[in-house]
Specification:
This protein is mainly β. The chain has two domains: 21-140, no CATH class; 151-232, Immunoglobulin-like, CATH 2.60.40.1930. Helices cover 9% and strands 43% of the residues. The protein is built from three helices and 17 strands. The strands form four sheets. Strands 9-8-7-6-3-2-1-10 form an eight-stranded antiparallel β-sheet, with no helix packed on it. The protein is elongated. InterPro entries: Secre_tail. This is Por secretion system C-terminal sorting domain-containing protein. Residues 159-232 form the Secretion system C-terminal sorting domain. Keywords: Signal.
Length: 233
């Protein structure tokens, strides 16, 4: 089984993950009138769909708010089948988001949470946050529409070899640019991410950091979104 140097993995993983972020302001009764910056920290895997989780970082409980010191998380709740904005205001070494669910939105967006233009972010505290329209800022890596899984689009993309060892080739026969490719483990945890600015027909990706096992390769473009299975030897 391949082992990646721990320090190199941490640096690369941080680089991949911290590219995505969301700016949020809302629920002034609990959070005060201030912006919170949330960055992508992990993912959830729900019946074949990957959704990104965003948290305020670093988790040092040094952002004062009406509730004391606040940390926030935006996550797809598999149990409740919805997006939730959760609050942790109990300083501790590890985050614990059982304090409150501030808002929820049932819009089925992925991979990122819905914007203010998509569905309704419901005030879960019974208007204690100021009502359903009390989120004043929700910008960054949020979505105004639901990406659809386009099987025709996915059939025009091939990956080889598969199984692989260190290098994977992506052949793009869609005629359009691919925006992003992410690789996650079978539990939905994002391991690697690649963002593309230009159209390509074929691209070589270095995946030598991956240990042997089964992975999911997620492809995102304006034509749609799709997932392919990946085996690393």
């Amino acid at each position: 089984m391949k082992k990646a140097p721990i320090l190199l993995f941490i640096i690369l993983f941080s680089t991949f993950i911290l590219n995505s972020q969301i700016t949020l302001q809302g629920c002034s009764s609990a959070l005060s009138d201030q912006d919170y910056t949330l960055v992508q920290t992990s993912t959830t895997y729900d019946q074949g769909i990957i959704r990104n989780t965003f948290e305020t970082l670093p988790l040092t409980f040094d952002q004062p708010c009406t509730s004391g010191f606040c940390e926030l998380r935006m996550i797809w709740s598999i149990e409740n089948n919805r997006w939730e904005i959760q609050l942790d205001n109990n300083p501790s070494p590890n985050p614990n988001y059982n304090t409150a669910i501030l808002y929820y939105n049932t819009s089925n967006s992925y991979p990122n949470p819905p914007s203010l233009n998509m569905g309704t972010w419901v005030d879960n505290l019974g208007a204690a946050c100021g009502g359903d329209n009390s989120i004043t800022t929700l910008t960054g890596d949020v979505q105004d529409s639901v990406l659809a899984t386009n099987l025709a689009f996915l059939s025009e993309i091939s990956i080889y070899p598969n199984p692989i060892k260190d290098i994977i080739y992506i052949k793009n026969g869609t005629g359009t640019s691919l925006e992003k490719i992410t690789i996650s483990d079978i539990n939905g945890r994002e391991i690697m991410s690649f963002t593309f600015n230009d159209y390509f027909y074929e691209k070589k990706l270095d995946v030598s950091l991956l240990e042997s096992g089964f992975y999911l390769l997620h492809i995102i473009s304006k034509k749609g979104i799709g997932t392919k299975k990946l085996i690393v030897q």
